Write a sequence for this structure.
């Protein structure tokens, strides 16, 4: 990519952060934490994504799960 990794680049450096090395547990069906109701571990920090697109897709899954739960009238 022109201007990205050449002598013309403004700054070239190492990427110093990686994805979360931990994963907060969550139920495969409800996407909630197994012990803490209404806690939905999601995205990179919770250990369910490793980039922009996977974080967005995981957020979408969790949002749909919460929305389905509200629509079905289950608040717990
Ligand atoms: C330098 C760098 C380069 C990257 N480059 C790429 C790339 O090229 N391509 C790619 O796919 N991915 C890249 N990533 C990874 C990508 O940015 C992340 O995987 C993605 O943004 C994670 O999304 P997320 O929603 O899970 O978390 P985040 O985007 O980190 O969102 C978490 C949000 O929670 C908020 N928050 C935190 N604590 C609290 C609190 N107590 N109360 C309320 N809000 C809170 C934060 O302010 C933040 O807005 C890069 C990451 C870094 C650091």
């Amino acid at each position: 990519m022109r201007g990205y990794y050449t002598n013309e680049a403004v700054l070239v450096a190492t990427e110093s952060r990686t994805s979360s090395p931990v994963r907060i547990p969550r139920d495969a069906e409800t996407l909630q934490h197994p012990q803490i109701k209404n806690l939905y571990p999601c995205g990179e920090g919770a250990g369910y994504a490793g980039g922009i697109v996977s974080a967005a897709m995981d957020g979408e899954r969790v949002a749909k799960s919460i929305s389905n739960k509200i629509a079905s009238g289950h608040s717990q």
